[in-house]
Write the structure tokens for this entry.
Amino acid sequence: MKQKKNNVAIIGGGIVGSLLALILGLNGLKITVIDRQKKDKLFSKNHYVKSYALNQGSSNLLNILNIWDIIKTKSQPIDKILLKQGSSISSIQPFELIFSNDYSKNNYLFHMIEEIYLKKAIVEKIDKCPNIEYLYSSNVVEQFIDKNSTKLVLDNGQIIYSDLIVGSDGYPSSSAKKAGIQHVNYSYNQSSIVGIFKHEIPHENEAVQIFLPSGPLAILPLSGNRSSFVWTNETNEAVRIFNLNDLNFLNELNTAFQNRRGQIQLESKKSMFPISLTIPKKVIKERFVIIGDTAHKIHPIAGQGLNLGIRDVAALAEVLILSRRLGEDIGSRLVLNKYSKWRNLDVTSVVFFTNFANKIFSNDNFLKKFATGIGFKLLNESKTIKNYFISEASGLSGDIPKLLKGCKL
Ligand SMILES: Cc1cc2nc3c(=O)[nH]c(=O)nc-3n(C[C@H](O)[C@H](O)[C@H](O)COP(=O)(O)OP(=O)(O)OC[C@H]3O[C@@H](n4cnc5c(N)ncnc54)[C@H](O)[C@@H]3O)c2cc1C
């Protein structure tokens, strides 16, 4: 039976857990990442359907890690966002709100990147970092935490000792459950169908989100004449649409999208995700902390979930690295409390905003729709409010961790 002693054991090597591992490893900490996925699945294109709209803060962090240069050629800038209010599948109301890069300090608003390219680039960097051991196809069977150290027992008998365990195994999270962290879960009774399609008419760097009564439909530009779709509906309707054959599915998608991109053709398989709001009662315990979707699973309406997780990574990495340099115990409550306090306001604001936006936009109530339409119209005419929204969405407002500003630790 092998034994390992590390600074940090990370359970869950998704994008969030892997990024944290890379930053800590590059700064001299000894890290083990444990993920239940097989390595060959990680690089299979079939396994991925999601694409992410990365904000400026996330891009800055990737840039500092020299990952941005690798994925830049695969990414697609978004120069314009069109938000439209819709009432039913066939009749889109005229109210709309446009954000363009005139409101941004850069010449773009977000960058779209497909999950496979981002994950590949991070894993390639991890493979080159001698301080990180990434264990694939591994499951934790026992998780012990005491005042001085932590111990994980894996299903192959391997034992890992560390000063701190990070739970980044998404939601539901077995690491949080084992640590005694409870979550509050609110189901929206909605599911999102996600995939990639090719289209006839160029997207011209424009992202579109149409607010239909049963949920938003987002069409986000990818490189070439390709786009990613995130189509959220009440779960019964989503299941019906998901089970249509490809031809009928594409017909309904195009109708909902008013044929804005001409003829469309599926490029990826489509996947369906149940949508819920899940928040933990706390994010830290002695020698244990949760980040990413384990710490906040939110509605995809604003495409902010991963960006929020990347902000967790930037803040936790900064707290751990600086505390270690000062000779502090990185697993102690004293250190972890700094992280928890730092993240509280940002996470609460994004949770509130996404929940509110879904409630306001996903309904068929005439008065609410009328009021939202007027709100859209007023917003569309206010440069100040638009500037505010763009600055908030860039991930660069408030007390920002250094990595998000593009500075080294
Ligand atoms: C439809 C949809 C669209 C979205 N679009 C966007 C977007 O445009 N922009 C954006 O910022 N966010 C978006 N999000 C949110 C984003 O997908 C998540 O916030 C992000 O993937 C969370 O990453 P994570 O690493 O925290 O968790 P996950 O991606 O869930 O990763 C968890 C990892 O843990 C591993 N794991 C799980 N259980 C165990 C276990 N017991 N033992 C070991 N390993 C385990 C898994 O294999 C996985 O690798 C979207 C979400 C949805 C549902």
Remarks:
- The longest strand covers residues 183-199.
- The domain at 3-405 is CATH 3.50.50.60 (FAD/NAD(P)-binding domain).
- The pocket of flavin-adenine dinucleotide is lined by residues 11-17, 34-37, 50, 52-53, 139-140, 168-170, 174, 192, 194, 230, 273, 292-293, 300, 303-307, 309 (CB under 6 Å).
